[in-house]
Amino acid sequence: MNPIVFNKFIIKGIRGGKLKRDLKINFSILDDIVAEIAKYKSALKEMKDATAKMMRLFEENKGETVTA
User: Fold this and answer.
1) Domain coordinates of the chain in residue numbers?
2) Are 29 and 44 contacting, i.e. CB atoms less than 8 angstroms apart?
3) pLDDT at residue 38 above 90?
4) Residue 63 burial class via C-beta count within 10 angstroms: exposed 0-12, middle 13-18, buried 19 and up
5) How many CB atoms within 10 Å of residue 13?
6) CA distance 29 to 12
7) How many Å apart are CA 23 and CA 17, to the nearest integer?
């Protein structure tokens, strides 16, 4: 069974060389999912940048204890 590439998705629903007729792809829902993933990816990058900034501040403000 060879998969068919359909709009960057692989569809393996082939019977007798014909694509399943009951396959329904709601592209608006897929677009919404892609948008949510893009937001999530952006938020992860922002958190990574903020964490790196905090680590730099910690390193800059690191001090040594002095016993008297």
Assistant:
1) 24-60
2) no
3) yes
4) exposed
5) 13
6) 21
7) 15
